[in-house]
Each structure stands twice: as structure tokens, then as C-alpha cells.
Amino acid sequence: MGSRARRWWLSAVVLAGVLLCGSAPALAEASPCSRPSGEALRDAHWRVDGPHHPLLGQVLNGTTPLAVETGPCTRTPLQQLTAEIWRTIRAGGVVLLGEAHDNPEHHLVRADLLRPQMERVAPAKGLLPAAVFEHIRADQQERVAHFYEQAARGRRLFTASDLLLALGWKESGWPAAEIFYPLYNAALRAKLPILAGDPPRDRIKALARGDRSLLQEGDLALVTLGEALPQPLVDALTTELVSSHCGAMPASAFGGMNLAQRYRDAHLAAALLKAAERHGAAFLLAGNGHVRTDRGVPWYVRQMAPGRKVLSVMLVEVEEGKTDASAYARVDGAGMPAADYILFTPRHVRTDPCEKMRRGKQ
User: Fold this and answer.
1) Residue scoring higher pLDDT (83 or 331)
2) From CA 223, how far away is CA 101, in angstroms rounded?
3) Could you tell me if 276 and 192 are in contact, meaning their C-beta atoms sit under 8 angstroms apart?
4) Residue 317: what are its φ and ψ, rounded to 5°?
5) Domain holding 19: CATH number?
6) pLDDT tens digits for 307-318?
């Protein structure tokens, strides 16, 4: 994390203490289109931090770029996206916010999106939707409850670092906890109920091996729903799995893994809908693959609750020299967008995982 991002995160933690211990008064001179705290949205940081890219901070609505709005308020594409997200939440819908797991900027900008900062543009009106996380398994929900109990009894501020420690994050296989702190702190600041989304790990692994003995009745129903996914979409998922494993194994080796992935999507959808029923609306924080509208969690939401409004947002990293927005679009088999919105973000510098796999074979 860069020095500026670190300073931004530290200021956010200080603000978290204020908001968790009591509501801070809004600044009297705050613009009706600005955050009452005076903090800038993440796209303001992108305009001054790091290398410039013409798509950075831009938003696609399907295939159409959002233009900067003028009038009583000048709203950037990110501000407009924030407003649309909270309109969906106020209507009792579910909003899926994607991520590349190891990109710190994805967690920073989603921290913005979890809080309705612009009073007249995206008011929450007292609604506290749930925040369902892919990173938390169903068998870890008791740990979350224990965290809340400790926080209620404690004499100090409990933050994301305490929560992720309680979840045993170091052994979880997810990227470093520190890059997730802003996201989880945002949910805590906003007092959004934090809920588990993923199934227990042992059930996922067993299903990937073809073993259903660990699955309970509810799990088996989700697997059955996953088996109803149309075959072209199942094949597209296999193609993605083969690619993500660097083509090291043939497509025939991914049958069980494919079904396990469909089970996970169905489980995430069920957790999201249960949370929305209980809390009036809900967010899902998950990888971009899970938020695809064609074969990800939204497909299962549509099967389980056809009348529920669903909004999917993918966070897509820009690439140097690649400035045509349409070239980034995720599409389904018919060439239609596989997300309601795409937000263009900075690219995270990472090593090529396929190169490591190729070296291991030598």
C-alpha cells in the first residue's frame, strides 16, 4: 500500500472511532453532493495518484460510459454509481460488488460504496442493509458474533483488525488482511450487519472430489439448482477454470470443481437473499466471477427470488495502452454485458501465477 493510501486508511480508522462511539455532526458548510466528513471519494485520489489512464474512474452502464453530470451538483461517474447503488438498496434490492481479491484499490473504493456519503444524492434514510462476504464461511458466523460481543463489552474501539484476527485470516488463504481493513472498517462504521456468504470449506472440497456425504439437505438443494444451470453457461465456466489454472490440466479434469463453484454461487445467493429478507436489503462482497449476471450469483438470485431487484458491479483493472472501454467488457454467450456496471480501477502489480506454475513443472 502506498504512503498516500496508508494516510487515507489511517484517517478512515480515526473516523471509524468517532462513528462507532457516536454520530459525528455533519459539517455545516458541506456541499449537498459531498461527503459530510469532507473526505473525497476514491476517484479523486486516482486523479492524482499513480500513472494516468484515460479510463481510470470511468463507469460503464452495460456498454455505455457514464458522462460527468452537471447541474445543481457536478457528479462524477463514481458518484452516479454510488447513487444508483443506494437507490437499489432503498428499493429493497441486493447489490453485488466485485473485486480482484489482491487489489487494495478494490477494497478502498468499495469502502466508499458501502456508505451513502452524499446526503442529497444517495441518502440511506436510516436503512442498515446487511453486508455478506465471500471471505467469511458459514461455519465462521459464530466467530463474527463473538467479535460483536467482545466489541460491545470492550473499553476500546474494535476494528477490522480484531475481526479478521478472530476469523483466523492468516490461515484462510486470502491475501494479506491489511488490504481488507478499509472494506471491513467501512462496514463497521456504517453499522452494517456482517454476515458469512461462503459454504464451509470441507463441503466445497468434498464436492469437488465428487463426494456428497458431507452435504446436508439444504446444501443438496443448492447443488441441484446448480445442476440446472444451462449447459452453455456450464461450459463457459469450465473454460474460465481451465484458464485460471493456466491450461495445466484438460477441461475433463474440472467437472467436480465446476459443480463446486456452482454450489458456492448458489450458497452465496441464498445467504444474500436471507440477509435481504432479514435486514431489508443486502450487499455481497465477492470476486468478479461470482457477480457475473449470466452465470454467477445473480443467476441463482433470479431463480430463487424472481421479483428481487439485483444490481451487479464489476471492478476491472485498466491496462497500459488499452484505452477502448469496450475491450474490457465481460459478455455472456450472446455478447450481452455480464455486469450491470463496470468501474475502471488502477491495476495491481502482481507476478504472473502461470509463470510460477511453469517453473514448478521444470
Assistant:
1) 83
2) 25
3) no
4) -80, 135
5) 3.40.50.11550
6) 999 999 999 999
Q: Is 187:114 a contact under the CB 8 Å cutoff?
A: yes
CA-nearest of 230, 228, 238 to 334 is: 230
How many domains does the chain fold into? Answer: 1
**Buried (b) or exposed (e) across 4-29, using 16+ Cβ within 10 A?**
ebeebbeebbebbeebbeeeeeeeee
> Which residues span the domain enclosing 300?
3-361
Question: What pLDDT, in 10s, does the model give residues 102-155?
Answer: 999 999 999 999 986 555 555 666 789 999 999 999 999 999 999 999 999 999
**Stated length of the chain:** 362
**Is residue 285 left, alpha or beta, with left meaning phi > 0 and alpha meaning psi from -120 to 50?**
beta
| Residue 40, C-alpha cell as written in the block | 473525497
**Whole-angstrom distance, CA of residue 202 vs CA of residue 260:** 11
The neighbouring-strand residues paired with 133 are 196, 285
First to last CA, the chain: 33
Using the CB atoms, write b or e for 324-357: b if 16+ within 10 Å. Answer: ebeebbbeeeeeebbbbbbbbbbbeeeeeeeeee
Q: Can you read off the three cell numbers belonging to residue 281? A: 436489503
CA dist., res. 362 & res. 357, Å (int): 9
Determine the Cα–Cα distance for residues 5 and 242; give it in Å rounded to an integer. 35
CB atoms within 10 A of CB 209: 10
Nearest to 342 by CA among 65, 76, 86: 65
Helix (H), strand (E) at residue 3: helix 3-21
For 120, other C-beta atoms within 10 Å of its C-beta total: 12
228 neighbors 265 (Cβ within 8 angstroms): no
